C-alpha cells in the first residue's frame, strides 16, 4: 500500500525533528564539557572533526562521518578542512594535531587540547563502539591517548 502525501509529509517532519534533536544533543554534550556558546561549539566541533578526518584513511573517515548527526555532517562538508578530502594522514602526531586545531580556533595549545577531548568524548557518545575502535586503530599513540581518555 502506497503512502499518501500526508503520511509522507508526516514522516519527513519526524525525520527533521529527529535530526535537529540529535544535533542538539551533540551540541549539549559539548556545552557541558566546554561551556562555549552554541556557534562556537559548532566551530570547535567542525575544526576538530576536520582535523581528525584528515588523519584517518578515506574509508574510515567516511564511516565516522556517517555515524555523526546529519546537521554536523553538513557543517563539516562546508568546512575547508573537509573540502580537502580525507585520508592524507596529516597531522601525524598528537602535538601536530593539537596545533592544527589551535591555529584556526585562535586558542592556545592547552585550550585546543581541552576542546579536542570534549569533541572526542561527545563523538564517542554518538558512534558505535566498533566505530570508536576503528578510529582508534588509525591514530598514533599520542593521539590515541586523547581519544582513549574520553572513555
Secondary structure elements and pairings:
Elements: H1 5-34, H2 38-55, H3 58-67, H4 70-77, H5 80-83, H6 94-105, H7 109-126, H8 129-137, H9 141-148
Helix pairs in contact: 1-2, 1-7, 2-3, 2-6, 2-7, 3-8, 6-7
Structure overview:
This protein has one domain (5-148): Globin-like. The chain contains 9 helices and no strands. The protein is 77% helix and 0% strand. It is globular and about 55 Å long. By secondary structure, it is mostly helical.
In short:
This protein is mainly α. The chain has helices at 5-34, 38-55, 58-67, 70-77, 80-83, 94-105, 109-126, 129-137, 141-148. The termini are far apart.
Shape: globular
What number of domains?
1
Largest sheet: none
Instruction: Specify the helix fraction band.
Output: over 70%
Order of H and E elements: HHHHHHHHH
Helical segment count: 9
CA radius of gyration: 16 Å
Number of strands: 0
Q: What structural class do you assign from the helix and strand content?
A: mainly alpha
CATH superfamily: Uncharacterized conserved protein DUF2267
Amino acid at each position: 500500500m502506497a503512502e499518501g502525501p500526508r503520511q509522507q509529509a508526516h514522516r519527513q517532519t519526524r525525520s527533521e525533528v529527529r535530526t535537529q534533536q540529535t544535533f542538539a544533543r551533540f551540541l549539549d554534550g559539548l556545552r557541558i564539557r566546554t561551556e562555549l556558546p552554541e556557534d562556537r561549539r559548532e566551530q570547535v566541533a567542525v575544526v576538530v572533526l576536520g582535523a581528525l578526518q584528515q588523519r584517518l584513511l578515506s574509508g574510515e573517515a567516511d564511516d565516522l562521518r556517517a555515524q555523526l548527526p546529519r546537521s554536523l555532517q553538513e557543517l563539516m562538508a562546508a568546512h575547508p578542512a573537509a573540502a580537502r578530502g580525507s585520508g592524507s594522514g596529516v597531522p601525524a602526531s598528537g602535538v601536530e594535531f593539537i596545533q592544527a586545531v589551535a591555529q584556526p580556533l585562535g586558542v592556545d595549545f592547552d585550550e585546543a587540547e581541552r576542546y579536542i577531548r570534549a569533541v572526542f568524548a561527545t563523538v564517542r557518545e554518538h558512534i558505535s563502539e566498533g566505530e570508536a575502535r576503528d578510529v582508534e586503530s588509525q591514530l598514533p599513540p599520542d593521539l590515541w591517548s586523547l581519544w582513549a581518555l574520553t572513555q
